[in-house]
Amino acid sequence: MKIKPQIDFSVVDEIIGRYENPSESLISLLQDIQEEYGYLPTDVMVRISEQAGIPLSRLMGVATFYSQFKLNAPGKYKVLVCMGTACHVNNGERVADAVAKTLGVKEGETTADGLFSWEEVACLGCCSLSPVMMINGQVYGKLDGKKVEQVINDIRKAELERAGQ
Amino acid sequence: MRFMIGYGSCGIAAGAEEVAKSVRERLSAEHSVTVDLVGCNGMCFAEPLMQVKDDEGNDYYYGRLTGEKAVKIVDAFLNGEIPEENKIEGDELKFLKGQTRIALRHCGIIDPESIDSYIEAGGYTAFDKILKMTPDEVIEQIKISGLRGRGGAGFPTWFKWEAARKENTEEKYIVCNADEGDPGAFMDRSVLEGDPHSVLEGMMVAGYAIGAKCGIIYVRAEYPLAVKRLTIAINQLREKGLLGKNIKGSDFEFDFKIMKGAGAFVCGEETALLASLGGDRGMPTPKPPFPAQKGFRKQPTNINNVETFANVPWIIENGGEAFAAMGTEDSKGTKVFALAGKVKYGGLVEVPMGMTIRQIVFDICGGIKNGKKIKGVQIGGPSGGCLPEELLDTPIDYKSIGATGAIMGSGGLVVMDEDTCMVDMARFFMDFTSKESCGKCVPCRVGTTRMLEILNRIVKGEGREGDMELLQSLGSSIRDSALCGLGNSAPNPVLTTMRYFKDEYTAHIEEKCCPSFKCASLIKYEINPEKCTGCTLCGRKCPTKAITGSVKNPHVIDKDKCIACGECAASCRFGAIFKVSGEAVRYE
């Protein structure tokens, strides 16, 4: 996945070409695009519309309907905070508060260094570990404010060290 | 000897990777033992898990493992000993022994990434059997079994199959609804991760019965491991020549497609799911036409849920009567529940229909955590309802649950203790459904928003006289006039909490008090000067600097600055900080 997209339309065209019927497979197609760019850049949406003959209005309608699709570039680390029932009962909102506090940005936003973005999501399905959050596919369970801070700061530290080398 | 390590996404999150690595390293030179990475056996409370089957066929269960602890257990077994440390026994083991497993029959036992493991356990014999039956005979067995849809609505499965079978077209589809979106339910994920072939086999049986050649699995994108294991399973079927044309020399043709959902709860609704499969916004359409007449690509389509399909091979193998022998008059077989919340042993539990909620919570799941008192259970997720302690003896069947105002739903069961505020709970679910409302019909789009606004002001201590009547009237209107099941059932959590926990609403609205000390706007923290030692810890923890005081002198909380986050009470080692709500007081 590229973090800063260099729009190369041949990649977009190749993805469109994977589908026999791009209109019917629109959701899978957009998922592939997002896998490539990390989000759905506007220029790419225009290109899909032109190449596949799908009205831009419909593309944007679908992109804004499903919570998975992002129209802005996310951070390198995507923090998903579970808002499921079990997490709620076990004080999940404090995890969200702690993430917001540690990152210093609101839900749906990306930190200035481009490292982190965070959002609240419906159940991650790990209810027995509640409250939980997921960072780039890895689940962190039985959290409290302190643990959240530690997990995020550890990642941040590792990134800074990597950048320093 | 066989070692089985629970390797579902919940187990992996709890540390099963390290356990598996350590055990495999230890056993790399031992040829007489096998180590299998299996799905989750449902004992979520004790993860990471390992099951040991000795050469005599005895099973031993171990939990809360680390790599080191697991290796110790392995060493002991190799020395002919049965270690006691980390062993799951007594009450904890009752969790497993009290169950009747059909949909989960292979979860935690077979290797979900191996088709041979599934076949060895009796897999694909149901498929062999139906190839010698007529489609009508297959549907007849499902009818005898009394199987009803496990996704929520509880519609008889045979009826849907028959409706699709009757349609006289060449092109038909089988769709597996794996868009498990109920917050608090995770049985579909567990089945897909632990036993994907049973779902595929169930779909193939359904395909044969209605005359479909293509099976589509619509699965949540949030379940990457389920998608991976399904993909592996489908590829294995293909390698074995069990997909494509003339399967096993018959006239039957079948193949699978996986489609990942993109995060919309409403897509669990059949017609919305079909819109999503066609690349559109997942918005429901009025029924009729039913999917069995006009579904995917406007062709007859049969949609069932994961758990429903997982039951099908068992029914075919054992006969419809065997399934119907379990359960109650109107609800046959078993149902899987996902137990979470304040319950002692949370996880996946499969029990015969007709068992009471109390039996599930207390006899199987060990009751309430930390010795607290149970207040009630939330059953059926955002479409379901909250039932009080007095109704815990309600048997689990579609009719009895429906009579309480809740629904069976997909089987989420969240247990709540005295610390759970029912108004906050209702607000939580209304927040969820109003966000997930697709916006197509007015009752749901506007109605849920208005209900949420009222609930928000109640939990903030700004509730007004007449709010409960307003909620009741809005709730009834939405229930009667919304377009789809999501809207119809959205008021359920509010209506049931108002019915069974009216006092809590009254306390919030009239006394501006949260009896469960949960709603932040209605509670304040105070410090008992006699207990406070002036250690200054709470002051340093307070995010808003609301706590002042000098070393070794009692501290004071500035009520105007306090946001009631609870950090101070959680950090106090002397129990000096207490909560006040209305006239009630509680120490942490």
Which secondary structure elements does this structure contain, and how are they paired or packed?
The complex is a heterodimer of chains A (165) and B (588).
Chain A: H1 9-17, H2 26-37, H3 42-52, H4 56-65, E1 77-82, H5 85-89, H6 92-103, E2 116-121, E3 133-135, E4 138-140, H7 145-164
Parallel strand pairs in A: 1-2
Antiparallel strand pairs in A: 1-3, 3-4
Chain B: E1 2-6, H1 9-14, H2 16-27, E2 34-38, E3 50-53, E4 59-62, H3 67-78, H4 91-97, H5 115-120, H6 125-131, H7 135-145, H8 157-166, E5 173-178, H9 187-194, H10 196-210, E6 214-219, H11 224-239, E7 255-260, H12 270-277, E8 301-305, H13 306-318, H14 320-324, E9 334-341, E10 347-352, H15 357-364, E11 374-379, E12 385-388, H16 398-403, E13 412-417, H17 422-436, H18 442-459, H19 467-481, H20 485-489, H21 492-500, H22 502-510, E14 524-527, H23 537-541, E15 547-548, E16 556-557, H24 567-571, E17 577-581, E18 584-587
Parallel strand pairs in B: 1-2, 5-6, 5-8, 6-7, 9-13
Antiparallel strand pairs in B: 1-3, 3-4, 9-10, 11-12, 11-13, 14-17, 15-16, 17-18
Index terms:
heterodimer; A: 165 residues; alpha+beta; Glutaredoxin; 2 domains; four-stranded mixed β-sheet; 11% strand; globular; B: 588 residues; alpha/beta; Rossmann fold; Ubiquitin-like (UB roll); five-stranded mixed β-sheet; 24 helices; 18 strands
Strands in their spatial order, largest beta sheet of chain B: 10-9-13-11-12
Helical/strand content category of chain A: alpha+beta
β-strand number of chain A? 4
Care to count the β-strands of chain B? 18
Strand content of chain A: 5-15%
Question: What count of domains describes the coordinates of chain A?
Answer: 2
At the fourth level of CATH, the homologous superfamily of the largest domain in chain B is NADH-ubiquinone oxidoreductase 51kDa subunit
Q: Your description of this structure?
A:
The complex is a heterodimer of chains A (about 160) and B (about 600). Chain A starts with 8 loop residues before the first helix and ends with a helix. Chain A folds into 2 domains: about 10-65, no CATH class; about 75-165, Glutaredoxin (3-Layer(aba) Sandwich), CATH 3.40.30. The radius of gyration of chain A is 18 Å and the shape is globular. Helix content of chain A is about 50%, strand content about 10%. Chain A is α+β, with helices and mostly antiparallel strands and about 160 residues long. The longest helix of chain A is centred in the last third of the chain and has 20 residues, at about 145-165. Chain B is globular and about 85 Å long. Chain B is built from 24 helices and 18 strands. In chain B, the strands form 5 sheets. Chain B has a 5-stranded mixed beta sheet.
